[in-house]
Fold this sequence. Notes:
Blueprint: H1 3-10, E1 14-19, E2 24-27, H2 29-35, H3 47-50, H4 60-67, E3 72-78, E4 85-96, E5 99-109, H5 111-128, E6 132-133, E7 138-142, H6 152-165, E8 170-174, H7 183-198, E9 202-206, H8 210-218, E10 227-229, H9 232-241
Parallel strand pairs: 7-8, 8-9, 9-10
Antiparallel strand pairs: 1-2, 1-5, 3-4, 4-5, 6-7
Amino acid sequence: MTPENEVFDQLSLGVMVIDLDYRITQMNRQGAMLLQVNGENFIGESVYDLFPNAPEEVRHVERTLRTSEEFTFEAIPYQWGKYNLYLSIRTRILENNGEVYGAMVEYNDVTNFYEKEQRMRKWMEDMAVNVIPLSNGIVLLPLQPIMEQVEFEYILDQGLHNVVYMKATQVIIDCSTISTVALVFFEKLSKLIQSLSLMGIRTTITGMKPELSKLWVSSNLPALKVKFFTNLQVALNELYDK
């Protein structure tokens, strides 16, 4: 084994190289382990023969060779046959003096990272629509700073579902933990309030900080039929005194 090959095999990510006929010309030790191929019998084999059942959506290095387009993916599902992974993928065209002679793909197992990220995203989504029942048809929706990082359609759909499930007639949207937002935050909030209103559910907003109030006023969004209170306790005193 040459010193170059020894270095190639010490890489912590998988690398595979194919020629113009889609034959594998190189694959390092980590690459073989990730793809669960043994020995060096795969060298000279066509990727279509070695992985005959691989779906087209995972054949990125072949597509790179075919189209000369290079691809980068942080995490793609590599789930077919015996495989149950999420891989990071980066493909490259290989050239020598302007002549293409093959393509290569770098790949790594990011399954644990991806699953951890998905659990964190699920936690963020749940926090963004954490509707808390109070009493007398009143529920509390405490907005979180993470709301801007969650798909609004999820907030709208799941948030409304939670409110209806609790048979709420009044929703208190508390903004006390929100310090800085982009203008789009108020556009989303406005749509949420309008949706609640169309369902016959009244909305109260509490804890709006001065900076947020100024930004909302400057947004030129349509006026909403909502009540504002300085904090949650004042709102609850008003609502329960009725």
